[in-house]
Automatic annotation (TrEMBL):
SUPFAM superfamilies named in the record: Thioesterase/thiol ester dehydrase-isomerase
Domain Acyl-CoA thioesterase-like N-terminal HotDog span(s) in chain numbering: 26-108
Family annotation (InterPro entries): ACOT8-like_C (IPR049450), Acyl-CoA_hotdog (IPR042171), HotDog_dom_sf (IPR029069), TesB_ACOT8-like_N (IPR049449)
Segments forming domain Acyl-CoA thioesterase-like C-terminal: 135-262
A Pfam family that the UniProt record links to this protein: 4HBT_3
The protein's name: Thioesterase family protein
Length: 268
């Protein structure tokens, strides 16, 4: 992969909730279509900035992907559905040329008291010492967008190989030009990669498309590097479900869930 990245940020702000998508947002399937991580983070950023209430945090964000999101100008809007001092429910939408391409919802809740004793069941995450991912064997994949804009360290498995898998990752560039990423933005930028990290289906044979991504965090991540461990389950006559865990160097901090369509790829 090298140190070259396709842009200095994932998005350029245009004002009025509008953003120009840079080539860094492009996913592995097409240079013209976005990976789900950047636009999930973009709407998460909007949730954080919408009527903020001191002492609260976004604990869960769900993004519904209505159609492929183009690498183009996007507009983001957010509204409060259920206001509250301790619990509030938010909804958001991303549009392209007036057409909705993604919708999202979020729960903003009061932060737990500082005297609460932590409850931790998960083992400590692996050391940040994995193998750098170069994507050199990904024939036909677009590597010069999102994949290059992130720095990857493989701990278990590899992209394009049967999962489950575990990676450490961090963005090389900010989500929005001129801004520092928040902890939530960093988590959302990575989370949609769960199905790529954990997939146990051959992408050359099967078309695998997630319809949504849910990120639930019991605490905010600390530091740039995040660890994502993921696995995928699928059944004939059913669909696929990808489950992942997010951690930082201090331990696990949340979960990722994706619903996926599975279909046979057309024979050439």
């Amino acid at each position: 992969m090298g140190e070259d990245v396709p842009a200095e940020s994932f998005y350029e702000p245009l004002g009025g909730g509008r953003f120009a998508s840079t080539p860094a947002t492009a996913g592995p399937w097409s240079p013209g279509l976005q990976h789900g991580g950047p636009f999930s983070a973009l709407i998460g950023r909007a949730f954080e900035r919408h009527d903020p209430v001191p002492g609260t945090r976004l604990a869960r964000v769900t993004v519904e992907i209505l159609s492929p999101v183009p690498v183009a100008e996007l507009e983001v809007g957010v509204r409060t559905v259920r206001p509250g001092r301790r619990v509030a429910f938010l909804e958001g939408e991303i549009t392209h040329e007036g057409r909705p391409v993604a919708r999202a919802s979020a729960w903003r809740i009061m932060a737990a008291p500082a005297r609460l004793e932590p409850v931790v069941h998960a083992p400590a995450p692996p050391d940040l010492s994995g193998t750098p991912e170069t994507f050199g064997e990904w024939a036909g994949m677009h590597r010069d967008g999102y994949l290059s804009a992130m720095e990857w360290r493989l701990v278990r498995g590899a992209f394009g190989e049967p999962g489950p898998g575990t990676v450490w990752a961090r963005p090389r560039i900010p989500l929005v030009a001129g801004e520092a990423d928040t902890p939530l933005v960093r988590a959302l930028t990575l989370a949609d990669s769960a199905s790529g990290v954990g997939s146990q289906l051959d992408v050359a044979e099967w078309l695998i498309i997630n319809t949504d991504v849910t990120v639930a965090l019991h605490r905010d991540p600390v530091g740039e590097w995040l660890c994502l461990a993921a696995s995928l389950d699928a059944a004939p006559g059913g669909s696929a479900l990808c489950q992942g865990t997010l951690a930082d160097r201090s331990g696990e901090l949340g979960r990722v869930l994706q619903t996926l369509l599975v279909d046979e790829r057309p024979r050439g």
